Amino acid sequence: MPDGTAVDGADCELINEKGRVRVTSPGFVNVHRSASDLKVNCIKGGYPAANANGVSRANLGMFGNVIIGGVPGATVDHFRGAGYSYPEWMPLVFGRYLRFDRYDDQSDQPSLGVEQVRY
User: Fold this and answer.
1) Which are the contacts of 56, defined by CB distance < 8 A and separation ≥ 6?
2) How much is the pTM?
3) Does the structure show a pLDDT above 70 at 116?
C-alpha cells in the first residue's frame, strides 16, 4: 500500500525470458537470472494491481569473465543468465507501476522504485 502497509495474500507472478514463477505475498522467491528485465505483477481482490519492472544489469562476474575467460566465457554467462543480476528487494505498491534498478540499491535497504508511465 502507498502508506507502507504490507498486503498479505496477493498473488504475484514474476516473468523473464527464462520462465515464470509464482509467489503469494508476503514472500521471497528465487528466479533464474537473465539478460531480460524481470516483470512483476501482483493482484488481490479489492486492490488495484501492483506492477514492477526489475532492470537486469551485467554483474561483476560478467566483466571478470570477459577479462579472464574472454568471449567464450562471457557468451556462456550471457546465455545461462549467470552474468546478470536484478535488484534484491523490490517493494511493490498497489495501484502503481514501479521500475527498480540495482544501481539505485542502498546496502540492506529496499530498492527505491521510480514510478513509470503506462501507455
Assistant:
1) 16, 33, 34, 35, 36, 37, 38, 84, 85, 86
2) 0.74
3) yes
